Amino acid sequence: xxTIQNSILxxxxxxxxxxxxxxxxQTWYSxxxxxxxxxxxxxxxxxxxxxxxNSSLYAKQxxxxxxxRKYNKRISYAVGYRYINKWDIAFNISDQNRxxxxxxYKNKLSKRFSYAVxxxxxxxxDLFGYKMTLRQKFGLDYNxxxxxxxxxxxxxxxxTLEDGINKLRSTIALGYPLAxxxxxxxxxxxxxxxxxNNPQTLFIFEGKLAYNL
Length: 213
Known about the structure:
This protein is mainly β. The protein has one helix and eleven strands. About 7% of the residues have low confidence.
């Protein structure tokens, strides 16, 4: 348990203190539908839009389909597919596919604190080739007494065989149920790149809506 906490703090420190040559402010939006299809198994459909260049230009649009199944109270696993439209600096659009599988672990540190670890293996690309990436995410949630607000923090690293850890993503989020089946989450995120030409630091606001069918 202490090892997990130390790992989270260490990754957060490096994420916020790393240096990058270019900065950009982005806004991300997503809407997802979740449906229980059989016992312990959920299907989710998610669509998202991301804006770059101080949130003035399209960066990415995607549709994501995922099946997730609980193994027990703490462990779950999932497989998914994402179709992506991506705009480059010259406004050319490219299409990419992402296939991924993940294992999730969640447990309580105390009555109000819980932690989660997600290990995701993904391959993403197009007809010209695909790239494998391991993404490991550590998160902490806090259940505030006598309120529906749920604050959380997380940090995630992206690891490839070619470059090692080439991206760090740290997030502060605040979730709130708008209705019985409708949840909203507002996040602030810092994302940093390594081992690329003109690496970027992105400062991101993201809004998420999730509806449970």
